[in-house]
Amino acid sequence: MEKNLFSIKALSLSISLSWLLLLVVTSFPGRAATQSLTDAVFDITGQPLKSGGPYDVRTFIGNYPIIAIYTSNNRCRNLVAVDTVRRSAYSVNIQPANGQEPFIRRDNTVKFEFNNDPPCINSSVWQLAPPDPKNNGRQLVTLGGKKGKAGCDTARTWFKITKPPRYQDQNVYSIVSDSSDVCDIPVQPYYIAATGADVNGARVFAAVVGSPTALVFVPDN
């Protein structure tokens, strides 16, 4: 009899705790979700960026799309650039280094990849290329980045999305080349900006120490 009474009391306590938990959840809808997304990157509609996307990346000033172009010496579209003649944006897949993360978060390591591979490139993964002596030693953002897990072997393909101080109250961001979270080999982080003269109707992305290009993310529905 005492055993049955103990079981009934335990069951009653369990039910009471379940109702209390339900009351807390329903009284503060979205509270946990809001707290967990305070560091998320948001698109122009105010929604957090989902891992994988797809998204169009555009400049905040001018609304110019990010595309792949070729130089006059190379007919293969292997350079990431800001379009200046109103071509269509290239759809981008953004993946976090943490493959279990469902959202893209500020200052966390991510990889960018155009959803359509140019025919003459091994991959459409963005990478920060080594200094180019033909371009005054600049490090350009090119395609052909190595696919694979986060690590030193793929260090050049990893970036971070940061919030420029002047746009703290807007869903405007910049990109930084920074593999420090995935590789213990010291590498100087660089902002990414459209630089140099116009090439085939676009300005190529390159590593810079100064001001980065302000960007927004547009859902590619």
Portion of residues within helices: 10-25%
* Low-confidence runs of at least 5 consecutive residues: 1-35
Give the name of the CATH architecture of the largest domain: Trefoil
Number of domains: 2
Here the CATH topology of the largest domain equals Trefoil (Acidic Fibroblast Growth Factor, subunit A)
Explain what the structure shows.
The chain is an alpha+beta fold. It folds into 2 domains: 2-33; 41-219, Trefoil (Acidic Fibroblast Growth Factor, subunit A). The protein has 2 helices and 12 strands. The chain has helices spanning 2-27, 31-36; strands at residues 55-59, 66-71, 74-83, 92-96, 109-114, 127-128, 141-142, 159-162, 174-177, 190-195, 202-208, 215-219. It has an 8-stranded antiparallel β-sheet, with no helix packed on it. The chain has a two-stranded antiparallel sheet with strand order 1-12. Strands 6-7 form a two-stranded antiparallel ribbon. Strand 2 and strand 3 (74-83) form a beta hairpin.
